């Protein structure tokens, strides 16, 4: 009997269903801290579609900031929020402080969409949102580099994910965004 208990606990840990695993049903259960240091609950985006993107200022994909700003400007009045999540997880390409990151984004890309403070997006220290998102679509949907994207519905459900190489204004992302915009 003891061996079965151990086996069940090990299986539960590996699949994310063991006691203590994140059991949130929607993205609205998670909180970030804004890049300015204020609370940033995902529930504040209830009723809006959200494109969550882990970002980095010194990456070969950093120019995606321009496309993120463009999609934000195009769809924000229709209910899309772009949420930038700076992370230093991949190649140490986001080494700066929140102030340095915010200044870089504003000066170089005119970014005015919301951004969080710097967080981990992979591994055991990953922000709870990212651990939850990984359980929704499985390991293939985990961020493997900067500018990985998750699309959240107005109800807080994970709708889709897009790898780094899929640009924010690609036909695939635009189609997915338009399908989940509030009606």
Helix share bin: 25-40%
Characterize the largest beta sheet: strand count, sense, and whether it forms a barrel.
4 strands, mixed
What is the total domain count? 1
* Spatial arrangement of strands, main beta sheet: 4-3-5-6
Which consecutive residue ranges, at least 5 long each, have pLDDT under 50? 1-21
Strand content: 15-25%
How many separate helices? 5
**Can you tell me the overall shape?**
globular
User: What's the CATH architecture name?
Assistant: 3-Layer(aba) Sandwich
Key attributes of the depicted protein:
single chain; 183 residues; alpha+beta; Glutaredoxin; four-stranded mixed beta sheet; two-stranded antiparallel ribbon; 5 helices; 6 strands; 32% helix; 16% strand; globular; disordered N terminus
What can you see in these coordinates?
The chain has 183 residues and is an alpha+beta fold. It has a single domain (24-180), classed as Glutaredoxin (3-Layer(aba) Sandwich). The chain is 32% helix and 16% strand. It has helices spanning 2-15, 64-75, 98-109, 128-137, 171-180, and strands spanning 31-33, 39-41, 49-55, 80-86, 149-152, 158-162. The protein has a four-stranded mixed β-sheet, sandwiched between helices. Strands 1-2 form a two-stranded antiparallel sheet. Strand 3 (49-55), helix 2 (64-75) and strand 4 (80-86) form a beta-alpha-beta unit. The longest helix is centred in the first third of the chain and has 14 residues, at 2-15. The protein is globular, with a radius of gyration of 17 Å. The termini are far apart. The model is unreliable at 1-21 (pLDDT under 50).
């Amino acid at each position: 009997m003891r061996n079965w208990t151990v086996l069940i606990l090990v299986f539960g840990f590996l699949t994310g269903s063991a006691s203590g695993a994140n059991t949130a049903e929607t993205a609205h259960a998670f909180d970030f801290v804004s890049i300015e240091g204020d609370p940033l609950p995902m529930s504040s985006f209830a009723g809006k579609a959200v494109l969550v993107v882990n970002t980095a200022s010194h990456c070969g994909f950093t120019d995606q900031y321009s496309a993120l700003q463009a999609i934000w400007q195009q769809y924000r009045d229709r209910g899309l929020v772009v949420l930038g999540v700076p992370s230093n997880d991949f190649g140490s390409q986001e080494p700066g402080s929140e102030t340095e990151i915010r200044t870089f984004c504003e000066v170089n890309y005119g970014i005015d969409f919301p951004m969080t403070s710097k967080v981990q997006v992979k591994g055991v220290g990953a922000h709870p949102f990212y651990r939850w998102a990984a359980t929704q679509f499985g390991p293939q949907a985990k961020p493997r580099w900067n500018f990985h994207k998750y699309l959240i519905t107005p109800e807080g459900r994970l709708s889709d994910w897009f790898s780094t190489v899929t640009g924010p204004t690609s036909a695939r992302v635009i189609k997915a965004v338009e399908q989940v915009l509030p009606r």
